[in-house]
Amino acid sequence: MMFAVTGVAHLLRPRTFDAIVPRILPGPARAWTIGSGVIELVLAGAVWNRDTRGVGGLASAAFLVAVFPANIRTVRLMRGRSARARAIAWARLPVQVPLVILALRAATDPR
Predict the structure, then answer these.
(1) Can you tell me the distance from the alpha carbon of 11 to that of 1, in angstroms, rounded to the nearest whole number?
(2) C-alpha span between 18 and 89 (Å, rounded)
(3) Distance between CA 14 and CA 105 in Å, rounded?
(4) pLDDT of 41-64, one tens digit each?
(5) Distance linking the first and last C-alpha atoms of the chain
(6) Domains in the chain: boundaries
(7) Are 52 and 46 in contact (CB under 8 A)?
(8) What is the pTM of this model?
(9) How many CA atoms lie within 13 A of 46 on its CB side?
(10) Could you please report the per-residue DSSP string of 35-73?
């Protein structure tokens, strides 16, 4: 469900996400934003579908690890912003761990 919501958000509000695309990635940030939104929607569907849940869970865990640098970049970009914005950015970092665990659990849970 989370990937469905964030995937749609990436497609409807790409400007929000463009700034956190690590500069080391080649090409325009918008392409990475749209691409990651599409991937999130595909992953949401894969985890939702019982036949693809195993591979979807593993791919979701890998994706969460792959986008972690963007979360670190967000923390850096929040310097000088409100205390609330900085707290939210910092809170996202440790949340990745249980999300990866949930994704791996989905990979092994037939329900």
Answers:
(1) 16
(2) 15
(3) 30
(4) 999 999 999 999 999 999 999 999
(5) 15
(6) 2-108
(7) yes
(8) 0.84
(9) 20
(10) HHHHHHHHHHHHHHSTTTHHHHHHHHHHHHHHTHHHHHH
